Amino acid sequence: MDTYTAAQKQPKSHNFDLTLPEAHTEYANEVFRSSYNLGFLRTTEPIRELELEQRLVAKIKSFVLELGKGFSFIGNQHRLEYNGKEYFVDMLFFHRGLRSLVAIELKIGSFKAEYVGKMNLYLSLLNRLERGENENQSIGIILYLDVKIALQDTK
User: Fold this and answer.
1) Three-class DSSP category at 118
2) HSE-up of 18 (CA within 13 Å, CB side)?
3) Disulfide: which of 13, 54, 66, 126 matches 138 by Cβ 3.0-4.6 Å?
4) pLDDT digit string (tens) for 87-120?
5) What's the CA gap between 109 and 14, in Å, rounded?
């Protein structure tokens, strides 16, 4: 079985049907994947989240191509200020077809439930402070790199 076929058979890990308008749910399912191949980073040993971000930014063209068609890179450590506090989105993109901001939060290690709360805060702030008049609700991706898996993939 090729990589594309394997990726298509993986269960989706998202809540698009609960958070996006019905018209956008199917398209978002086509745009976003359940996993991404970050082998181009050549990770052979454990790294910190900041190093992961720096490597992705340095190879932004490869990363955007891995994300898929229609993504535009806005920036990294995108600053949001609200009620006198600063928040920083690891990476911010815009998807032309979905007409949505796409926030990516980078994490190293296993998934933790608190990541969802942090992402929800970022999405609320993006919708309140950054979203354009003709744009749809912002979308968040929590991209976590399990170093054990990364080590296996680079062999």
Assistant:
1) helix
2) 3
3) 126
4) 999 999 999 999 999 999 999 888 889 999 999 9
5) 19
**Domain boundaries along the sequence of the chain:** 14-153
Q: Fold for domain 14-153?
A: Trna Endonuclease; Chain: A, domain 1 (3.40.1350)
pTM of the entire predicted model? 0.64
Query: What is the tens place of the pLDDT at every residue in 42-66?
Result: 777 777 888 888 887 887 888 888 8
Angle at CA of residue 8, ends 28 and 72, nearest 5°: 40
- Give the residue ranges of DSSP H helices in the chain: 3-9, 16-19, 22-31, 49-58, 60-67, 114-129, 147-153
Cα(75)–Cα(91) distance, rounded to whole angstroms?
Answer: 6
Which residue type is seen at 62?
Answer: S
For 133-142, what is the mean pLDDT?
94
Q: CB within 8 A of 85, min separation 6: which ones?
A: none
Place of tokens 């998934």: 111
